[in-house]
Write a structure and sequence with these properties.
172 residues; alpha+beta; six-stranded mixed beta sheet; globular
Amino acid sequence: MPTPAWEQRKLGELSSEFQSGDFISAEKILASGPYPVYGGNGLRGYAKRYNHDGFYALIGRQGALCGNVNTAVGKAYFTEHAVAIKANSLHDTRFLAHLLRCMDLGQYSGQSAQPGLAVGVLKEVETTVPSKVEQQAIGSFFSRLDDLITLHQRKLELLQNIKKSLLDKMFV
């Protein structure tokens, strides 16, 4: 039986949650703590409380790097500089995260001194998606590939450190 065609949808139609995080003062962002704090460009520190729980795709919504995409798993605090996205029951968040990374979302930013993405604009961006089963297979494949790349990057860094150490010993 042939695979059903991919359907065109707005990003907002794919999500049960699609909103900016909440403000947190700099004093409440700690060097360590129970819950990671994610801003528009990824991990910023830790906090004593969380405002989201689960697997989320996060879009940076302000600054030169607006439109970048990260993910967060578990209990975490998302700041107002990140748009938190969780797929609805018909879609897969892991797939959405990979899809969003390919969409050049920064092109939808407002052209002011400080580039920024509006949640309302992002919700209206159209894309195509396959069935949920296919989304899960694609999301899982690319996540495993990301894990493999990370593993090899760590091995490369270790080998580079060993090389540097040997060269330092040779040419003291």
